[in-house]
Design brief:
With about 200 residues, the protein is an alpha+beta fold. Helix content is about 40%, strand content about 15%. Helix 1 packs antiparallel against helix 2.
Amino acid sequence: MLSSRTKGRYSGAGGFTLLEVLITMIILAFGLLGLAGMQSAMHLAEVESFQRAQAVLLVQDFGSRIRAAGVNGAAAYVTGTGTDEPLGTDTEFDCSSPTTRADIDKCEWSNLLLGASETKGGANVGGMIGARGCVEELQASDASAGVCTAGVYRVTVAWQGLKGTVAPSLACGEDEYGSETLRRAISLLVTLGLPRCT
């Protein structure tokens, strides 16, 4: 049988152990909250990375289409920028009625911007959030004797990011996403030389 002295010692130890368990649970709860916050931040970074990868692919795709059109056909690919009407602002286009190669390419590219490359339940899910595409002519080609200026075009894709950063200097998609700090943009310069020009 335990003496009253021994019983007091054990009951005090039991209370101390419960306090240790409570403190450990509080520390563990804060650790789990930190882990949940880190996982949320990682998910945001993953979505941002996916959107940037999609934008790079779309910019390269349309740059290739302009190169294929050559010096004589590249001007037909120019679209609106900024507050003008860039590609990707309308609903999905029916690409069966365009008459020129440039119209077909712009139609297909606009559908890719809208995410038509992948669908789920009838909805487009293969693109970025609010993607817009712009093509600007920075320098017209000039094959005049003694001039021989190459054509320079800028292909830009803009989309909405998930977290505010510094607003891009490119005009494509400007004032389309509420705050300019949510707008992301990536561009590619396409130069069309005149190899036979002298």
